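quick one, 90 residues, struct below
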Amino acid sequence: MNIVPAQEIKRRGLAAVDDLIAHGDLHVIRNNQLQYVVLSEARYQDLIVAEQEAHYARVRASLEDVNAGRVQKFKSAAELLAAMDLDETT
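---
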């Protein structure tokens, strides 16, 4: 884990980050606790893309469930709650 104390950033400025970020994500310690993570722009963009892909995969899986008939429809919230109660008792 790549770690830098917040005091070091305060003392040296971004130079403290620049020296370490080349080795990967940088964890910042403040008050003896991990408080922040500093990422390169490329790493940040990779995480955003991965998050979007995961979201699309969940939507696709939901649509496949609808198309395959694995979805139940209820006329009211009360009907849904009653069905949920039945599931808990079985």
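The mean pLDDT is 92.
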